[in-house]
Design brief:
single chain, alpha/beta, 5 helices, about 50% helix
Length: about 90
């Protein structure tokens, strides 16, 4: 049985790369993909880690937007490890 996903792509990135990643998200969205981007999903007062976990679980693909800042970020490590254990 195939799983239905709420999102096609989860964009994992450092907040320091936000501008470039937002441009990528807009391009993917304009191509018809359902994109999980923190700026579009997270609202004030949301439990961030739970929302991220849900986004990862409900995304077909995790795209890691790698940069030196990505590898220095604790959040991106958490997102990557969450995906590894999802499967």
């Amino acid at each position: 049985m195939s799983q239905k996903f709420e999102y096609d792509v989860f964009l994992s990135h450092s907040s320091k790369d936000k501008e470039v990643v937002r441009e990528l998200a807009e391009r993917l969205k304009s191509d018809g993909l359902r994109v999980w981007l923190d700026d579009w999903i997270l609202k004030a007062g949301d439990p961030i880690s739970l929302k991220i976990q849900h986004g990862i679980e409900q995304s077909h693909t995790l795209v890691m937007c790698m940069s030196p800042d990505f590898f220095a970020s604790e959040w991106t490590k958490l997102e990557h490890h969450s995906l590894l254990f999802r499967d």
